[in-house]
Design a protein that fits this description.
CATH architecture of the largest domain: Orthogonal Bundle
Number of domains: 3
Largest sheet: 4 strands, antiparallel
Strand content: 5-15%
Radius of gyration: 30 Å
Helix content: 55-70%
Strand order of the largest sheet: 1-6-5-4
Distance between the termini: 39 Å
Length: 369
């Protein structure tokens, strides 16, 4: 009997190790690219073009030991000898590894006439990290950096700081307004009896399957006639309308599961529906409210289509600014990665601040006692 128990414990331990190992592997697969982008956002442009992000950690890599200037008298259009190796320009540009373990590489174009000799050595922590990438991305001022060929590039920044503030101005009201409206509606559907209640709630739930893309053109025509296009009010109204069906459905499940005795006691004491809603329903519904707030805020913050249609470039938000950076600065990784992490700061803060309510809000009303 004891042998059977020992075997069961061993199998359980083995299963636990396997599950934990799979979870750790999944986390690493997800985290490694994120860590790489994060480290890249702090590296200068020259290091990004010349080496991978993992080179900031101790590793065995190529270390420059010699720098050779090719004389002007040598014709680089023909094979020539340099550092004991005879090759043409194209081959040297790709790099040649000699039998003795050296790597000989031509740097830049033909006019540079610069060849470096490298050897494989252990390199310690060699990070040259800087905050200049974030400063250049947020400021919108003129920025200077060097490309892969060593040429100095001068460009105009994207003022992601202004876009960040615009996103806050759009996302915060677009999260609070539908929460308040949906909470009132969910209370009415859950606890008030009025004609057509079930039909109206069915229509609200049916709106969850309607794609928002089909509503963009009609709403845009109405906004144009009302002179609302390109304003924050247009974004608040649009996101409120698009977010209400899910909010009403989510809050209805939670509010409908609250104990009826509490509300009946409040009615006996003479409380009105508004008093019950503000003094009882809202405080007791904080998990569901926080759960929807996470959904709505992340959706509005990461929205690109609605902002592109109703705001355009008049009040550019973070997603629009990042899309413009990809088009204008598609090769400037140091700017793109820093901009990506700037856009992630506030959503991550909101999620981790409200995550303790997240599961409780989602599971609300799913189990009846």
């Amino acid at each position: 009997m004891s042998g059977t128990k020992t075997s069961q414990k061993g199998q359980k331990r083995l299963g636990s190790v396997f599950v934990n190992g799979v979870l750790v592997l999944i986390c690493l697969v997800w985290l490694i690219p994120t860590i790489g982008v994060f480290i890249t956002s702090f590296r200068n442009s020259e290091d990004i073009y010349s080496s991978g992000w993992w080179t900031v950690f101790p590793h065995r890599g190529w270390v420059k030991v010699e720098e050779i200037r090719v004389p002007e008298s040598i014709d680089v259009d023909q094979p020539f000898e340099v550092a004991g190796v005879t090759a043409d320009f194209s081959t040297l540009r790709q790099g040649i590894v000699t039998p003795d373990g050296r790597k000989i590489t031509w740097i830049g174009n033909k006019r540079s006439r610069l060849v470096i000799v490298e050897e494989k050595r252990w390199v310690g922590f060699s990070a040259r990290l800087t905050l200049d990438n974030y400063r250049d991305t947020l400021s919108g001022k003129e920025i200077r950096f060097r490309d892969a060929s060593g040429n100095e590039i001068t460009r105009k920044g994207n003022n992601l700081g202004g876009a960040f503030l615009n996103s806050i101005a759009v996302a915060v009201p677009s999260t609070i307004i539908p929460i308040l409206i949906a909470a009132f509606a969910a209370y009415g559907f859950a606890w008030l009896n009025f004609p057509g209640r079930k039909l109206l709630f069915t229509l609200v739930v049916a709106l969850l399957v309607v794609p928002l893309q089909i509503a963009l053109v009609p709403i845009l025509r109405d906004y144009t006639q009302l002179n609302l296009n390109g304003t924050y009010l247009a974004m608040w109204l649009a996101h409120t309308g698009f977010g209400l069906p899910l909010a009403v459905y989510l809050l209805f499940n939670y509010i409908g599961s609250l104990p009826r005795d509490i509300l009946e006691s409040a009615f006996i004491d003479g409380a009105s529906h508004f008093t019950i809603f503000t003094r009882l329903i809202l405080p007791l519904s904080i998990p569901a409210l926080a759960s929807f707030a996470i959904f709505q805020f992340l959706w509005v913050w990461n929205d690109y289509l609605v902002a592109l249609v109703f705001l355009g470039d008049q009040n550019r938000v973070v997603t629009s600014a990042l899309a413009a950076m990809v088009g204008e600065k598609g090769q400037d990784w140091h700017l793109l990665t820093s901009g990506a992490f700037v856009s992630m700061i506030l959503p991550l803060t909101v999620f981790f601040a409200l995550q303790r309510y997240f599961v409780r809000g989602l599971m609300a009303g799913s189990v009846k006692g």
